[in-house]
Amino acid sequence: MMLNTLLRPARAAIVGASGGVGGALVASLAKAGFEAVHALSRVPVAASTGVRPGHIDLLDEATIAAAATALGEGAPLRLMIAATGLLHDARTQPEKSMRSLDAAQLVRGFAVNTIGPALLAKHVVPLLPRAGRSVFAVLSARVGSIEDNRLGGWYGYRAQKAALNQIVRTLAVEVRRTRPEAIIVALHPGTVATDLSAPFRGAVSAERLFTPDVSARHLLDVIDGLTPDDSGGFFAWDGQRIPF
């Protein structure tokens, strides 16, 4: 059984369920013996066996609080993954140099990539059981590693993910006091064939470009292998620790 390190009965939740990685995580977890998998997103997703769609918008704390209320009902919530992120869209592009820095774009990126997951933790982590293994994970990015930054560029996205990593580390310190078996981690999924990576994956080799299904399997395998001693860490798709 997938994620057999999490006690059953239990529930799981994915934020960003309408995205490529998020949808693949929902599909995988629906087969993993959970009482329910909550598929949360701004864009509605279809209900299916064991999957409970729900609305959430990480830019609107009221929707986060409402989703958390619904998550409080049923078997223990032992897994929450925030599979969200903003790298580019019609209004936002990664900066190639400091000349491209724009205040509004930076603020929007921090709201989506850092503040939203932090507020999610505020409302959801208190729902994790006080005893037994549980996991709160967020998708970060290797470019958020300050130590690993050798190419420059992408000022906003790098800073936003670095700040998210610090949220994860700080949250892990606090949560350890009341939930010693809980694991709070940041995960790097690698380069996944989704809209987020589409303009930037030309130099990625075929064996390092993952489908969403493969990425979901990698991430769940990493989660399955983590222990409470790993809480507060930053891990790649292959289980290797990434320096902050």
Radius of gyration: 17 Å
Which structural class do you get from the secondary structure elements? alpha/beta
CATH architecture: 3-Layer(aba) Sandwich
User: Order of strands in the sheet with the most strands?
Assistant: 3-2-1-4-5-6-9
What's the helical proportion of residues?
25-40%
The secondary-structure element order is EHEEHEHEHEEEHE
* CATH topology heading: Rossmann fold
Distance between the termini: 32 Å
Spans of at least 5 consecutive residues with low confidence: none
Number of helices: 5
Summed over residues and divided by their number, the pLDDT gives a mean of 94
How does the overall form come out from the CA principal axes?
A: globular
Largest sheet: 7 strands, parallel
CATH H-level superfamily: NAD(P)-binding Rossmann-like Domain
Domain count, please report it.
1
Features:
244 residues, alpha/beta, Rossmann fold, 7-stranded parallel beta sheet, two-stranded parallel sheet, 5 helices, 9 strands, globular
Describe this entry's structure for a reader.
Helix content is 32%, strand content 17%. The chain has 5 helices and 9 strands. Helix 1 links the parallel strand 1 (11-15) and strand 2. The strands form 2 sheets. The protein has a 7-stranded parallel β-sheet with strand order 3-2-1-4-5-6-9, with helices on both faces. Strands 7-8 form a two-stranded parallel ribbon. By secondary structure, the protein is an alpha/beta fold. It has helices spanning 20-29, 61-71, 103-124, 155-175, 212-225; strands spanning 11-15, 36-41, 51-55, 77-82, 134-139, 182-188, 191-192, 209-210, 234-236. The protein starts with 10 loop residues before the first strand and ends in an 8-residue tail after the last strand. Helix 2 packs parallel to helix 3 and helix 3 runs parallel beside helix 4 (155-175).
